Amino acid sequence: MHEIDQSEAAQGVLVRKRRKGIYILPNLFTLAALFGGFYAIVMAMNGHFDLAGIGIFCAMVLDSLDGRVARMTNTQSAFGEQMDSLSDMVSFGAAPALIAYEWALKDLGRWGWIAAFVYCACAALRLARFNVNTSVVDKRFFQGLPSPAAAALVAGFIWLLTEFGVVRGQSVALGWGVVSWTMFALTLYAGLTMVTNVPFYSFKDIQMKKTVPFFVIVLIALGLAMISIRPSLVLFCVFVFYGFSGYGIYLWRRAKGLQTSVISTSTDEPDERGLHN
Fold first, then answer.
1. Among positive and negative, which fits the CA dihedral 240, 241, 246, 248?
2. Which residues contact 168 (CB under 8 A, 6 or more apart)?
3. What is the mean pLDDT of the chain?
4. How far is residue 53's CA from residue 152's CA, in Å, rounded to a whole number?
5. What is this structure's pTM?
């Protein structure tokens, strides 16, 4: 009887040893990014659209850090990957769509909520495609506009106009209808570009541990100074440039006779197997 008790106790110790915890450091950044998206939604519901835009941009910064922190500390996990995708869906999918709808799209009736839904659905499709294609993607490029950049286009436009004194529903020089339809076009563009095959540079091949010339540090300092002067304007211009850069890369690669697709659509077909090795 005593031997049986000892055997059961030993089994209990083994069961306890098999339990796995959750790495707290990278997931703290992911939760903080999720809070940024949630904060943006709450601010938009209360009419503070400038703060809503800031919330989206803060979520972008935090989202860019969680993966880097996980790799630097060797704390990558399948749980962290799934958590990151769910956070991105809220912060860069649902939040921008709801903010755009509350700010301008609701004045367009059914066209407004259709545009908001198209953006939200495309964000979900883009994140799902990214998750299943990570093993065959060319790491130098994203397939389609990444969801944080799409969110920056939508939220950045709202933040910019709010900073310049444009109040929702009030008459402006070109009329509020022009603002609403511009928001409509920008929302559709950002959403549909997420699910295209257009290549967007990922900056993942930049080695942070390598030395750089002195003038690079000077340029970074100048860039930070420019952002501090008018953050909404500078950041929106940066992401407008990036949001259209993919089409420039696509046309350039096509003109050079290079392959325009940056990902293998099927690893089973002989002509696509090992495409980006």
1. positive
2. 47, 49, 103, 104
3. 81
4. 8
5. 0.81
Question: Helices 176-194 and 95-103: crossing angle, nearest 10°?
Answer: 160
The three-state secondary structure class of 157 is: helix
Neighbouring C-alpha atoms within 13 Å toward the C-beta of 265? 4
Sign of CA dihedral 253, 258, 264, 266: positive
DSSP state of 94: I
* Distance from C-alpha of 1 to C-alpha of 57, rounded to nearest angstrom: 64
Domains and CATH numbers, the chain: 26-73+86-255 (1.20.120)
**What tokens appear for 182 in the block?**
């511009």
Q: Tell me 84's DSSP state.
A: H
Strands (E), 33-97: none
Q: Are 265 and 273 in contact (CB under 8 A)?
A: no
Q: How far is CA 179 from CA 108, 183, 185, 206, 262, in A?
A: 11, 6, 10, 38, 35
Place of tokens 């950045």: 156
Q: pLDDT tens across 36-60, in order?
A: 999 999 999 998 999 999 999 999 9
Query: Residue holding tokens 């959750």?
Result: 22
Among candidate residues 109, 119, 125, 176, the one with its CA nearest the CA of residue 153: 119
Give the ranges where 133-261 is alpha helix by DSSP (H).
147-163, 176-194, 214-229, 231-255
**Which residues are CB-contacts of 36 (< 8 A; sequence separation ≥ 6)?**
55, 56, 58, 59, 62, 91
pLDDT of 112-124, one tens digit each?
Answer: 999 999 999 999 9
Q: How far apart are CA 273 and CA 264, in angstroms?
A: 7
